[in-house]
């Protein structure tokens, strides 16, 4: 079981996620983001804006995902 925080996954807080695979931890982070969006949490909304900007270029987004996956795999 591996642990990463919201901030380590591109978010805005220290909430911890635990998973065996990167896909599982990514899904947990996504669900947390949805919750924070519904609560209109400003810090998370800013992190989401940065992510949206990153997603404009698919190759940049893929590089970002691969970097996060590499960090997860090294844990």
Number of helices: 3
Radius of gyration equals 12 Å
Instruction: Name the helicity range.
Output: 55-70%
Order of helices and strands: EEHHH
**Total domains:** 1
Residue-averaged pLDDT:
96
Q: What overall form do the CA principal axes indicate? A: globular
Which class of secondary structure composition applies to the elements?
A: mainly alpha
Strand content: 5-15%
The stretches of 5 or more residues where confidence is low (pLDDT under 50) are none
Strand order of the largest sheet: 1-2
Major β-sheet profile: 2 strands, antiparallel
Number of strands: 2
Give the termini separation: 9 Å
Short overview:
This protein is mainly alpha-helical and 75 residues long.
Overview of the molecule:
This protein has three helices and two strands, in the order ββααα. By secondary structure, it is mainly alpha-helical. It has one domain. The longest helix has 17 residues, at 22-38. Strands 1-2 form a two-stranded antiparallel sheet.
């Amino acid at each position: 079981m591996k642990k990463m925080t919201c901030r380590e996954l591109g978010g805005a807080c220290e909430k911890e996620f635990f998973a065996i695979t990167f896909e599982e931890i990514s899904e947990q982070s996504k669900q947390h983001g949805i919750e924070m969006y519904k609560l209109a949490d400003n810090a998370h909304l800013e992190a989401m804006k940065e992510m949206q900007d990153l997603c404009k270029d698919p190759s940049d987004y893929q590089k970002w995902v691969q970097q996060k996956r590499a960090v997860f795999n090294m844990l």
